[in-house]
Design a protein that fits this description.
Layout (H helix, E strand, L loop, with lengths): L5 H6 L2 H6 L2 H17 L3 E8 L5 E12 L5 E9 L1 H23 L3 E5 L5 E4 L1 H7 L3 H4 L25 H8 L3 E9 L6 E12 L5 E10 L1 H23 L2 E7 L4 E4 L1 H7 L9 H7 L2 H17 L2 E9 L6 E12 L5 E10 L1 H23 L3 E5 L6 E4 L1 H7 L3 H4 L12 H12 L5 E7 L5 E13 L2 E10 L1 H34 L1 H17 L5 H32 L8 E4 H18 L3 E5 L5 E4 L1 H17 L6 E8 L4 E8 L6 H5 L21 H12 L4 E6 L3 E11 L8 E2 L6
Parallel strand pairs: 20-22
Antiparallel strand pairs: 1-2, 2-3, 4-5, 4-8, 6-7, 7-8, 9-10, 9-13, 11-12, 12-13, 14-15, 14-18, 16-17, 17-18, 19-21, 20-26, 21-25, 22-23, 23-25, 24-25
């Protein structure tokens, strides 16, 4: 070690110290001094430089002894531990690497003793079990804090734990699934546990290495898969469908329980392509075999309705098959998967619907009623029957290319609004006018309501031609109006006879009785006054009877109508002469402006009746000292306009509205009690309208009234003149 003989070293110890590594010399000297002072064993590790330049590691181990002279003598050994030191360093590196590997593994590792006590644990074990390393050491896997359970939720007895079983049987226990609750968070993790016993030479258990991995996500995925499978089965059951996978290489079909039920296969019954093919209805078998063969050879997918005889009861069922192939790495089809839906009920319903559609089409097309099927959104005529074609004058094909707006004469927006009402069932009965191919307009009665067809709402319309009925109703209405008019005229006539005609006669009779009974007592003045009253009554009776006779003759068609041209100026003057007496008594001024060459084409008697009645009316309702103005002027080449304006008591709007109605009593007394029936105005209006003219009135209460009317004219050069009738106040 020190490159010298024992004697050399005994004589000069400096040779030993000279070899010691400079970094270690102080430590060696210090340890020797300490051993000398304390007389304690000297144990020290240090390095020396060998003669060949190599560093040797030595280990000194000696016992000190104090000599008589007080010096210290050591007895011991110095051992070359260079080789062992290198081995230990390598071992330390290996141990550190192993410790790091174990600590960083995602697998939990426990080393447990013969009593299940935990001797060693790694970081992952600490993480999964919810305790720190210090808390785990010394615990047993039987600790109740972990609340270990089986997959089904039942408790996991300690004697059946993997480590316990491994100790008891001295055999490995693998793939045990345990639900472990972390003590602090109470979060449950699922572990897949292995326990491997390490035995002593005598066969007893030295320790058990327990490893475990977290399979919580795998378990949750498994539970999710189970839920998905359950949901799939429920969905297939609800949808009356089942799925399958055909392994081409194994020539084996795997089916779901729902497909087994549809096909009639029993549980565990082997299914192969041939067994399946025998179930297919003979007429469908060849096409299905061809489609499947093509899909297996070239890949792709297909869908097809086909029939089978169900295996367990032989019942004929309809299936809708959806098949899809999957190719392997070599480009060949390896799997064929698909879904089969039992559509038997749908097919039966389709048959019922088809039968109903056939019946409906027969009813629709062959019915004698006019029928149309219309899209309410666009107005397009989708379907028409032969009766509609016969009525409208188009062929069925032409009608089915038309829009309802080409037939209905209402504005399109109004037709659309009516179709909306029909679609919402707010109204299902309508009266329209429809145009035929010939251009003729016919009145129709339409019954229309919504029906569902092809996923949309259509209008089913039945049309009835009511043109003749409408004309009959109009004729009946006119006859009813005429009858009501006749009844009103009759009632008016009887009313006049019963009241208006009777009252003057009573007055006249009273005067004659007065003269007969008291003539010998009366003075000449009394007799003259009674005679004047009798004259007035006789005049009123005469006028009333004249009106009644004219009206009666007119209504019976006995009144002659002989229009001829005549000058207005002299004829109006003649009419006014008859009214002067009444006007003078009330001091009323009469003015008339009539061109002297203005002519009309009229019946003279009727014209005079018009002027006489209107003048009598104006005088009757004009107070004393009032005025009446008569105007006549041409308003066109063929009409003359007349107006008779008074400054009388006037009329309200309600009275004007009832003025020419026979069924309303519009008569009232004049300003000095003159009687009135309203019959004269009605006669005037009838005479004017018989000439093709019009009559109207304007009036204000307390201001006066103006009656307007028109008669046919003889063309003239108008020259308006102002004339005053002799005998008037102005």
């Amino acid at each position: 070690m020190f490159q010298g003989t024992p004697d050399d070293i005994m004589e000069d110890g400096s040779k030993v110290f000279a070899r010691i590594h400079p970094d270690d010399i102080d430590g060696v000297i210090s340890s020797i001094h300490k051993s000398a002072l304390e007389l304690s064993p000297w144990k020290h590790e240090y390095r020396i430089r060998h003669f060949d330049g190599a560093l040797l590691t030595l280990y000194g181990d000696a016992l000190p002894e104090r000599e008589a002279d007080g010096s210290v003598l050591w007895h011991g050994f110095i051992t070359d531990i260079t080789g062992n030191k290198a081995i230990n360093e390598k071992l330390h590196v290996v141990e550190k690497s192993y410790h790091d590997l174990v600590s960083n593994l995602q697998v939990g590792i426990l080393v447990q003793g013969p009593e299940s006590e935990i001797l060693i644990c790694n970081n992952r074990a600490s993480e999964l079990l919810g305790y720190s390393e210090n808390q785990l050491l010394g615990k047993t896997s039987l600790d109740s804090d972990w609340d270990v359970i089986h997959e089904d939720g039942t408790p996991y007895p300690g004697a059946t734990h993997p480590v316990s079983l491994s100790i008891a049987t001295r055999k490995p226990v693998h793939n045990a699934i345990m639900g472990v609750s972390k003590p602090c968070s109470k979060q449950r993790v699922w572990l897949l546990v292995d326990a491997d016993p390490q035995l002593n030479f005598d066969g007893s258990v030295k320790e058990v290495i327990c490893t475990f991995v977290d399979i919580s996500e795998l378990r949750w995925a498994k539970e999710a898969l189970q839920r998905s499978e359950k949901a799939l089965n429920q969905a297939q059951e609800i949808g009356n469908m089942g799925s399958f996978i055909f392994d081409v290489k194994a020539n084996l079909i795997t089916t779901t329980s729902q497909l087994d039920r549809i096909l009639g296969f029993g549980a565990g019954q082997v299914k192969d392509p041939q067994a399946w093919n025998t179930l297919i209805y003979p007429e469908d078998r060849q096409i299905m075999e061809s489609l499947v063969a093509d899909c297996l050879e070239h890949g792709g997918h297909f869908e097809r309705d086909y029939r089978i005889f169900r295996l367990n009861d032989g019942e004929l069922r309809w299936l809708h098959g959806i098949y899809r192939s999957k190719k392997g790495p070599e480009g060949k089809v390896t799997f064929l998967s698909g879904v089969n839906i039992d559509i038997t009920d749908r097919k039966k319903m389709e048959e019922v619907v088809l039968a109903g559609e056939r019946r409906y089409r027969d009813i629709f097309e062959k019915n004698l009623a006019i029928k149309l099927m219309i899209d309410p959104l666009s107005g397009e005529i989708l379907t028409a029957n032969q009766a509609a074609a016969n009525f409208y004058g188009y062929s069925v094909d032409q009608l089915e290319r038309m829009n309802i707006n080409e037939i209905n004469i209402l504005p399109p927006e109004q037709v659309k609004a009516e179709m909306v009402l029909a679609s919402k069932e707010s109204c299902n009965y309508f009266n329209f006018c429809h145009r035929l191919a010939s251009g003729e307009i016919r009145d129709v009665e339409v019954y229309s309501g919504p029906i569902e067809s092809g996923g949309r709402t259509l209008l089913y319309s039945i049309i009835f031609d009511i043109t003749v009925q409408k004309h009959s109703e109009a004729e009946i209405l006119l006859k009813n109006e005429a009858l009501n008019q006749v009844n009103a005229e009759k009632d008016k006539f009887f009313s006049i006879i019963a009241h208006d005609l009777r009252s003057p006669f009573n007055g006249f009779l009273g005067l004659t009785e007065l003269l007969a009974d008291n003539l010998h007592k009366m003075t000449a003045e009394d007799i003259q006054q009674s005679a004047l009253l009798m004259k007035s009554s006789a005049r009123n009776l005469y006028d009333l009877l004249g009106n009644l006779l004219e009206w009666s003759r007119m209504k019976r068609g006995l009144l002659e109508f002989v229009p001829k041209p005549f000058l207005l100026f002299p004829k109006i003057g003649e009419c006014l002469t008859l009214a002067l007496n009444s006007a003078n008594k009330k001091e009323i001024t009469i003015i008339y402006k009539v061109p002297d060459d203005l002519k009309v084409l009229a019946d003279e008697n009727m014209f005079m009746g018009i002027i006489r009645n209107l003048m009598t009316n104006a005088i009757k309702f004009t107070p004393r000292c009032g005025s009446i103005v008569i105007l006549a002027r041409p308003v066109s080449d063929n009409m003359v306009e007349f107006s008779i304006k008074d400054s009388g008591i006037g009329m309200s709007k309600a009275m004007i509205d009832n003025l020419f109605r026979l069924d309303v009593n519009s008569g009232r007394k004049g300003t000095e009690g003159e009687p009135s029936t309203g019959l004269g105005l009605i006669i005037c209006k009838d005479f004017i309208e018989k000439h093709g003219g019009e009559m109207w009135v304007e009036s204000q209460v307390g201001i006066g009234t103006t009656f307007w009317f028109t008669l046919p004219a003889i063309p003239v050069h108008p020259d308006k003149l102002l004339k005053a009738v002799p005998g008037s106040l102005n």
